[in-house]
Amino acid sequence: MTTPCVRAPVREGEATRAALAERDLLDGDREIEVEDGEIFVPVVDAAAARDAGHEVAEREPAERDGPTPPAEVLGFEPSYERLGDIVILDEDDPERARRIADAIVESDVPCETVVNRASKVAGEYRVREWDVLHGDDTETVHREYGHEFALDVAEVYFSPRLATERHRVTEQIEAGERVVDMFAGVGPFAVPAAARGAEVLACDVNPAAIDYLRENAERNGVADRVTALEGDVRETTADYDGWADRVVMNLPHTADEFLDTAVRLAGDDCVLHLYDIAHEDDPFGPGERAIREAAEPAGYEVEVLTRREVRSYAPHEENVCLDVRIRRP
Hints:
Helix content is 25%, strand content 33%. By secondary structure, the chain is of the alpha/beta class. The chain has three domains: 57 residues, 2-Layer Sandwich (Alpha-Beta Plaits); 68 residues, GMP Synthetase, Chain A, domain 3; 167 residues, Vaccinia Virus protein VP39 (Rossmann fold).
């Protein structure tokens, strides 16, 4: 009997698995297979997988023969995500979180540490507090689309859920481009951009993130194409006016406050990737208006290339991205 499997290059295996897990599409009763540089991930709903943009092939993967999965221990399917060898929970009930952590450790989920979110992202550095339920090390190495990112979840912000979106943007980059990543974190946009041959200026206010960014540029062999600047991008980039062919603005709640700086950094023809949190009734209007208000007085024509809903953020709120070309006639 055949089983639908999402087909992807091996280097995209973990990101593909994570994207499918987020949509509850993984078939946990079948083995993931690798063949000739490709990975085949069994799924429970072929149509839903295709709708999510994946290629689906019919295969005959073996039934899983190993330790009990967490759901069989618990009697329900727990929600969690993996970041390197850390498993992340988001449970309000500490007792339920502990039960899930114990089941994950008992199961075949590979991990060294299990943590539960203990606070929202907060502060200038956008970090969380965590309850460590198993293990004691919050540092890990996460692999995404062929790149490795060292990070400590207690010191920096990183969301594995955005892997597909980061890949979408960086796949647009061509060799020789000059890219500014205004809120770079540990480098999940900057490193792949440099790997595609771009020269990257990466900024962040968090000194720990900048340290990891420099380490990750070395780790992935692109340190010669990444310049990391610690501090507020509005204050550290005076030498780069008119420099950028592309600007990534992934600070959804407040990125629009930095549009004047993005326009200052932009060359005569530049693509902006502006991330925003907006109400579902008008998810793109506020961002579009803000870009026009910043760019048009500076002599730019504005062309919206893509309006994209990245994910649901909260009830009636969407995390969206606008890909916008600004060009001087």
